């Protein structure tokens, strides 16, 4: 009967508009929820099959929910370095537990990036979901896989300990006074045979100099350089210079201070590491060609390859002209390159005071973790108070062929559905995945003006549907009263 179908159509209108009101209510309630994606009830007509000559039968309306998951919210700046937003497509991969993940444990996807470090050092958002990423392996490399979720690990920044870096390079910017008077020891060394107090790197060296007793040879100029060993311990190297009787040439020695820090082989005494001659051109620059011509007599026969190679503490006795770190230090082998010919300075000989302009070294002492940074490519980097940085992991982003078809779950997260298609894991900024914004959060995509306007129209539509029911009821009442 047509009146009955009208009643049912009115009921379907009430049901559909109730669903629309529920969607609007959910949106308004989550207007300040980070990463929330608005939903909307969409209506479709229900048409009953019609028989010719039998009147019209109303089918009504059916409401279905549409989720605007692919719609991106505006990124807003925060003060926390672990707050993450995505500029573009993609979802963070998260899990409900941090440790002992099994292949059958659920992997969820979210845009809610308000992550904090929990009591175990894991990154967890406000819904209690843990951030997943590719960890750094033993070689410092990150191996990504676009299809294997089991390769991901919960990112932990609390397990990062202290760190140190050994010195591998020293740049020396210093000047030796060209008019420096030649000492008696250097003058005696020029005699044939050498004088009784002649400078000799083995028997009467600058490394033997003792100002209290007067033993050894007093350097005309000396530079001390701090270096870091493999454990971050601070060691000291001294470079001593003595003006030679030969113009534009200086005797030079490099030694460890104190001498007990090293064990040396034959031809080296009192902590010496290297001895020889440094030559300068007539315009005061280091004379590379002259030093190459000196060969074994030069401090470094090839100034462009001026390297000291320290053996480890547990190495055997060093060979002639070799040296190891002392056994009691328990440190690893180490190579230190000297840059004596830097374009901006280097080692020079001008007629001004002998002075050190700068000594530049790499390497650091032991440092503790001071903060964690995450860049736009998703690299999680630990920054230590000694200036050292170390990558911990890389955040993984998941993309889908149809993100709007993902299934919503509690915690402002989503689950894979048949309609969404399978996931693809990507690094930020590649393959259509967006960039990660650190210290940023994605705002809700809810527009209050749109939702309140929808409230008005939904309320009116609900009232109109209820009017259908009351009108049909009055018509049925008229029909029933015919018998009276």
Can you offer a commentary on this structure?
With 484 residues, the protein is an alpha+beta fold. It contains four helices and 32 strands. Strands 5, 6, 9, 10, 24, 25, 26, 27, 28, 29 and 30 form an eleven-stranded antiparallel sheet that branches. Strands 12, 18, 20, 21 and 22 form a five-stranded mixed sheet that branches. α1 runs antiparallel to α4 (448-480). The longest helix has 33 residues, at 448-480. It is rod-shaped, with a radius of gyration of 40 Å. It starts with a helix and ends with a helix. The mean pLDDT is 90.
The total count of helices amounts to: 4
Q: Class by helix and strand content?
A: alpha+beta
The beta-strand count equals 32
Low-confidence spans: pLDDT under 50, at least 5 residues?
A: none
**Strand percent estimate:** 25-35%
Mean of residue pLDDT values = 90
Give the overall form. rod-shaped
Task: Report, as a whole number of angstroms, the end-to-end distance.
Answer: 22 Å
- Classify the helix fraction into a percent range: 10-25%
Main beta sheet strand tally, sense and closure: 11 strands, antiparallel
Radius of gyration: 40 Å
